[in-house]
Amino acid sequence: MAFTFGFMGIHQTVSGAFIGSGNTFMSMSPSIVSLWLLRFPVALFLSHYTSLAEVGVWLSFPITNILTALIAFLWYSRGTWKKRKITEEVKISVETTKETIVEKGEGF
């Protein structure tokens, strides 16, 4: 497991880049794929259809950490996340007006 902590760091860093660019869907997708489409099926397969039993469940964690980091990095490398704009450019015209300050004094 300790060997794959670096891959978890890659995944978190790439997810942070996606979030920072305003692409929260791109950040969420590898996480959902990791848990639901990779980790659970791999754990089920390794624990029930191999002789690994409960060790297969534990092996599913490092396997999916590596695969998720690879998927996130490949998606990041495509560069499509750069095209999203978080804000619109708004041009503001500034008009200045003259204001007269009238003070209320004793003579009024």
Key descriptive features of the protein:
108 residues, elongated, mainly alpha, 61% helix
Explained architecture:
The chain has one domain. Helices cover 61% and strands 0% of the residues. It has 3 helices and no strands. Helix 1 packs antiparallel against helix 2, helix 1 packs parallel to helix 3 (54-78) and helix 2 packs antiparallel against helix 3 (54-78). It is elongated, with a radius of gyration of 27 Å. It starts with a helix and ends in a 30-residue tail after the last helix. The model has no long low-confidence stretch (mean pLDDT 85).
Summarize the structure.
This protein has three helices and no strands.
List the helices and strands and how they pair.
Elements: H1 5-20, H2 24-48, H3 54-78
Q: Using only CA atoms, what is the Rg?
A: 27 Å
- Average predicted confidence as pLDDT: 85
Name the poorly predicted regions: none
Distance between the termini: 84 Å
Count up the domains.
1
**What characteristic shape results from the CA principal axes?**
elongated
